[in-house]
Amino acid sequence: MKKSILFFAAVLIGALMTFGLNSCDNKGGNPLVGTWKYSTEYAHYTYVFDDKNFTFTDTNDTDTKIDQGTYELNQAECTGVLHYKTTTFKGDGQNQSFPNEEDLRFKYEIKDKSLTLTIGLDWERPQVVTLTKE
Fold it and tell me: What does residue 78 show for φ and ψ, rounded to 5 degrees?
């Protein structure tokens, strides 16, 4: 009986330490605020978050796509929702904006200056990107 209680206590302490050390709260406040970037061979991506709004910019050799909207966070679960409002396309002499009323659920994890976003939690294959804070 004592061994099983000790084993259960060790498992409980291990679980508490794992969840406690893996917090996405990032020292209080809104952990996403700032400019986050990542690049591939073909494009450059930037997320800019303030306390309630976001801008996502996708730039490649020929054009730029800009998504803007608001977002909500659930810091206890390290999740949120992007509420898209407009999409703008720029390039080849065009500059067109369209309403965009899409909501995308996401999960996030912040370690030092890296932000890992899993976007599209409702999709069969969510997109995972790791960005660096400027």
Answer: 60, 40
Closest CA to 83 of 65, 106, 104, 66: 104
The DSSP code sequence of the chain is -HHHHHHHHHHHHHHHHHHHHT-SS-SSS-TT-EEEEEE-SSEEEEEEE-SSEEEEEEEESS-EEEEEEEEEEETTTTEEEEEEEEEEEEETTEEEEEE---EEEEEEEEETTEEEEEE-TTSSS-EEEEEEE-
- Which tokens sit at 86? 């407009």
The span from the CA of 88 to the CA of 43, in Å, is: 17
Decide if 65 contacts 57 (C-beta within 8 A).
Answer: yes
Torsion, CA 15, CA 113, CA 59, CA 101, rounded to 10: 50
Tokens describing residue 90: 């720029």
pLDDT at 58: 97
Record the pTM: 0.79
Residue 12: its pLDDT value, please? Answer: 40
